Amino acid sequence: MSSPAPLQTLSRDLSWLRFNARVLQEAQSPDVPLLERLKFLAIFSSNLDEFFKVRVATLRRLVKLKKKTRAKLNERPKRELRKVLEEVSRQQEEFGVTFREQLLPELHRNHIHLLSDAELTDKQREWAKHYFQQKVRDLLSPVVLDDTLHHLFLKDQTVYLTFFLSQPRDPEAGLADERVLIMELPTKRHGGRFVRLPDEGQERYVLFLDDVIRIGAAELFPGYEQVAVNAIKLSRDAELDIEEEVSGDLMEIIRSSLAKRATGFPARLLFDPEMPQETLQAIKQKTGITDEELVEGGRYHNFRDFFGFPEFDEPSFYYPARPALPHPTLPRTGSLLAAVGQRDHLLHLPYQSFDYVTRLLREAATDPRVSAISITLYRVASKSAVVKALLKAAKHGKQVTAIVELKARFDEESNLFWADKLQRAGANVIFTPPELKVHSKLLLIARREDDESTRRYGYFSTGNFNESTSELYTDHGLFTANEQLTRESEAVFDYLRDQQTVPELEHLLVAPFGLRSGLNALIDYEIKQVHKGNEAYILLKVNSVEDRGMIAKLYEASAAGVRVELLVRGIGCLVPGQPGFSENITQHGLIDRFLEHSRVYVFAHGGEEKVFVSSADWMTRNLDRRVEVAFPILDEALRAEVRFLLDLQRHDTVKARDFDNNYLLPEDGKKGLQAQEATYAWLKGLKRRQRDAAAKVKPEKKQKI
Question: Is 322 marked as a binding-site residue?
């Protein structure tokens, strides 16, 4: 019997790099407003930093494992690392070309000049020297790399400037005077990375802080004939490896790991290729960094600082304002609990305001009939209105239970801070066990009604309880008092409290104990429908498809004749359109103004379409090692609403790309459809359409008396 053919997939890391290439495409797109294109460069750079800190660092640790161990893990990290670094190098080169040959000339055409120190006029140079003396010089503290310094520690994600000082060889002594110094670029203390020079008519000028220091370098070191100033930036291994920890106090593990994060193994040292070899050699010697961590960069690093590029009073440079829309069925004032008690409501972020969530929490905090509030907290804002409402509820005597996730990468410190606040206020704070991450977004409110019965009010979401990201991420949130859903939500919270009793669920699909099997059953049902001659399809919108088991299941469905449409923003390891196993699968992704974050699963289900909205991507970690919730949209009108918005994305011909990152274009003569713009316009008119539909149902006329 022959062995089955290996599963055809694209590697997770190379797929992620394809995603970041789509981000770079937005920076290159002339249809994107000019200064928004700079922000996409910042996003690309920030993404790549995290990729090196986490994924590349992980690959390098795998390379260092013993060969037998790697064989057991079925890993070939050396080859994967080589491919990854080759692709990163290619993208870095494209990034530089985009910046130098596209954006800088476009800024110039729009009378904005991002100058280097070599491009300044004499007048501007004098201004920059004066600025250096008045605003910058006192912020600098260079360190000499000499024999007295035994080890140099470089902070993570921080730009440093190096100085190579040299004097001609002394004829008498026969020696040249050379020194290498280094210092942190004082971006935070300065108040940003950029310096705005005086305008000249309609021409506006901007200078990197780096170049202000280059201009002042001769003044800093007056005894040297040559001063070469270059930039470096280190990214350190940020993977906490918490999943490997199975015992001990998790809070202490997290705190310890956060401390180690700053001193983690070097993952990448970006350096200026114009840097003198003497400088680079000194850096390597004092830090212990090896050649394999060196990555050739450019003159400037940390392009994420372009998030703080100076603003200009020109609306065309930015996306048009899209103020959050009022919700068509939730009241602007008055009781939200009463409104939720009457019917289900679906919230679409960021098109509609997250304030409805914080208003509901504030109302529950002071409602004398509310007895308990339970919530899962994965990522919260730095000045969290959500947690402040929970603190208020605790002070009003409500039983507040907060399931706080301490393993939310890069937000652990913030979560610890708010957890401490909640504990001091008397809330019941539950930290998840080391082997399990709670990624679901659930809120449950218990209230005593007029008849003295207890009624539950719930909010299920694809997005975090975070006001900041709610303005940037597209998410769906369901307000409901449906007894079937809220009772099962309470069962999930009971499980999170004791981690013992696996809930019996009929409507919710919950990982790690029911989501995978539930999805497999739904896919199997579609396969059966094909065999019966019925229409069968699956529509899947997620951030990532990586789990090999689910990919194999989708291949099985495709081979059986089920039509599968994938809308994947980020990682997509499934290979669509391949004869014999995936010819019935199509895949495209959407990158636009807002970050697509909602997950929607649609199954034809024999003509009785099922629509689930979820916090879970189709990744192994989401299905097996996290608490995730997929919740059905039971209200027929809301189900149609989700499907309509999903269909807009399915038919996008402006911002959608196929599996190979080619734009999906409209047919000849047809206008392109931009899903996010169309979504805003449709939701803006939703209340009017509902009102018009209601008006068509005319009540019977009363007879005059």
Answer: no
